[in-house]
Design a protein that fits this description.
Number of strands: 2
Shape: globular
Helix content: over 70%
Number of helices: 16
Strand content: under 5%
Radius of gyration: 21 Å
Length: 336
């Protein structure tokens, strides 16, 4: 396909995704969930007092960026269900574009990028959450764009993509608690690059430092908030982490196995039973997409171990290893 055709298809995919996320937004889902209401209340109070916080302690504690964006929407467009949900709609739509960019960058194929963007555009799971005012909607946006710039930076060996990618990645600490696991993906990806490129650290150490520097710059405000208020750091994990005695009730291994098993089967067999998130008991993915996902998942695991075996047994440096390390580590760490 020529560039004009590609861009036209991409525009139509993003436009479709935006329509599915905004159409009839005030009626579906009906009403406003309690968590959404708390976000809106914090935004209204922030406008009234002029006090925009990096971390809002109510409702077990929440990173403040999302509430501040809601406040800006309220301030400029008025208070309504639409403006309450507008940041989710925007981030959900932009994630479609980011999915195209990062997938095309990973595989170096336009068609795979367009397929991935289309699946993100019409995914029930993605559409449903993009219609709910949850700060978790920012996290996929942060990950796809930060990894896009990082991988592109490695490919073209320029400083600017590392700086942009680092700044976006650092902003992830302002989004949602599960981002705190994301740096582990970077560690595994770095190890993979070292394994597949003989002089990777020698070539890229300055650019890696630039990435870390800009990550710290954008993350610094909330890091300082955690330093000043250490109770913020653990306020939410106490009620959701399987490591919390509140959650595991003294049965850590059993809780872990149950959580891990339910997390794996939700894609193809038994979906989330919370009606806010899913239509029980159906899985997250439709049958056709689910079959292809499972095939791709198994293939990725197989290729990962195959390429690792070749690297350590035959001393073969295959850059395709980076693809499967990224895909598999991204999946499992964010599953945590």
């Amino acid at each position: 396909m020529n560039k004009k055709t590609t861009y036209l298809i991409l525009f139509l995919i993003i436009a479709l995704g935006f329509f599915l996320r905004v159409y009839n937004i005030e009626s579906a889902p009906p009403g406003v969930y309690p968590d959404e209401a708390v976000n809106g209340e914090d935004a209204i109070r922030a406008i009234a007092a002029g006090d925009y916080q990096w971390f809002y302690p109510a409702n077990n504690g929440r990173e403040g960026l999302f509430m501040n964006l809601i406040a800006l929407c309220f301030k400029f467009f008025g208070i309504s269900v639409l403006t309450l949900k507008l940041p989710s709609i925007i981030f959900g739509t932009l994630t479609i574009w980011g999915t195209y960019l990062v997938t095309k960058e990973i595989f170096q194929k336009e068609r795979i990028g367009l397929i991935a963007a289309f699946l993100a555009s019409v995914s029930f799971w993605a559409i449903n959450f993009s219609r709910i005012s949850f700060r978790a909607n920012m996290l996929p946006f942060i990950l796809v764009f930060s990894f896009y710039f990082l991988i592109k930076g490695v490919r073209i060996n320029k400083f600017l993509p590392f700086a942009i990618g680092g700044f976006i990645f650092g902003a992830g600490l302002h989004t949602y608690i599960s981002f705190r696991v994301a740096p582990a993906i970077l560690v595994f990806l770095l190890i993979s690059y070292i394994l597949t490129s003989e002089n990777f650290l020698k070539t890229y150490w300055k650019k890696i430092l630039i990435f870390i520097l800009f990550t710290f710059i954008s993350a610094a405000p909330i890091i300082y908030s955690f330093y000043a208020h250490p109770e913020y750091l653990e306020s939410r994990s106490a009620s959701i982490s399987i490591l919390s005695p509140e959650v595991n009730q003294g049965h850590l291994v059993q809780t872990f196995l149950n959580s891990f098993g339910m997390s794996l089967v939700k894609y193809n067999f038994w979906g989330d039973q919370n009606w806010r998130h899913n239509f029980p008991p159906y899985p997250v993915l439709d049958p056709l997409t689910g079959i292809m996902f499972l095939a791709g998942f198994i293939f990725s695991i197989f290729k990962l171990f195959q390429l690792l075996g070749q690297r350590f047994l035959k001393k073969t440096r295959n850059p395709n290893l980076n693809i499967y390390v990224l895909l598999v580590s991204w999946f499992f760490f964010m599953l945590v």
